[in-house]
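Thread: sanity check for a docking pose with zinc ion

Original post by kr_44:
Hi all, I'm comparing my docking run against an independent structure prediction. Below are the sequence and the ligand SMILES. Could someone generate the full complex and paste the structure tokens? I mainly care about where the ligand ends up relative to the chain.
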Amino acid sequence: MGKKTRIILSVFGLLAVMVGVIVFRTASISKTATAEPTAAAMLIAVDSNATARHLSKAVQFKTVTMQNKEDTDWPVFLEFQAWLLDTYPNFYSAVKSEQIAKYAQLHIWEGSDPSLSPIVFLAHQDVVPASETDEGWDYPPFEGTIADGFIYGRGTIDDKGSLIGLLEAADRLAVNGYKPKRTLIFGFGHDEEVSGSGAKAIAELLKARGISPYAVIDEGGAITTGMPDVKGPVARIGVAEKGYLTLVLTAKARGGHSSAPPTYTAIGALSKAIAAIEANPFESGLDKVGVAMLKATASEQDYMGRMAIANMWLFKSTIEGKMRGSDTGRAMLGTTIAPTIIDAGFKENALPREAVAYVNFRLHNRDSVKSVTEHVKRVINDPEIEIKLSGNIGSEPSPVSQIGSGPYLWLEDVVSQAFPGTIIAPNTVLGGTDSRYFALVTNDIYRFAPYALDASDFSRFHGLNERIGIDNFAKTVQVYYLMLEKAGD
Ligand SMILES: [Zn+2]
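Reply from moderator J.T.:
Ran it for you. Here is the predicted complex with zinc ion included:
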């Protein structure tokens, strides 16, 4: 055999082995989920009309937080809390309650076994405003109308659905004489939508008391259906959350008449700076959360999709390339850049002395507030442009919680008993939640509320016609009951 033939044969041999490995690995993901079917848990009986009426009533308290804190109607928060106390008396007598930062609430349901570290459940009381005129709403946003099988109104999914769902469940547990072994802590912040100082104060208090929770559960994930990546139901457990930072860029230059302009102008320099930032995007690629998510949902993909996911050693960059084709895909892969405000000039024939831009960044966990700020300085490369943090504060990306071990297994167990056969997948939450402050006391933060949401629901968050199905909400109560019971056992 000639040398050439030998080389060709060994190349073919290698190719055959590669194809064999690719096909074999692809076959290891079957089209239908392979997970052992979990026995469905017996869920408690819930009167769905009664729970709907409670959520409807909760919506009617206009606990709207405004960006300018003086514009917020704070007394309504106390009225809302008085109603909660009235409506869930068994819960309130089972827990020790503290008022934190005036309007936030901390409730501790002491467990019998002090060797078990507590689990914290978070939900926020406040909501974002709805349009003054109620225009575009099928039913007014603060009337809590129950119609067409839904409860309508601001907060039904973000986040009074969680708050009321937890209280409905915990109150029933208390009625049934439940005594947790593990301490259950409930933290109800009052200003999540504007900064989260209430949740922050609760986290700091836990830290000061030396409490490091086993896990923290907050909003941010749900059971989704009809999403672009997977059509069927998927329980999305948020195991990480992106960081947040806004940089304010200020360019200064000589003002004056526009008939004889200098070569360096404020608007010109600022425009170059923004263009430079966008031209130098941050590192982007799949991290361990993204890989785990793809693997968990692989069985729902077509053959080519399954082949790519099963053979990430070969196709990782192909998958990343495909993800970069969508805005959310890119947001999952790296730190994003969004110029959001620009302000300069007042007269068409006068040069402004100053031009200001706000650029918002959502930080992937491979980056930090410091590294992003330094990157921006470097790529702008203009010492004349001042770069400052908006509000003097940025929030770092969260730690990545355990996936497939520790509290993840507990949550996975609850979800698979409540929603048998549903795929459970970890993901990164792109927005911000109150839970970010709890990185101070634990790495294991899970963002998941047991609602079912379809693709159309995402525009209802902070948008028009926010609503939740009556049966969907009753199921939320049932699942929270199971979750709390399993947390305390
Ligand atoms: Zn929320």
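The domain at 241-392 is CATH 3.30.70.360 (Alpha-Beta Plaits). Hope that helps with the comparison, let us know if your pose agrees.
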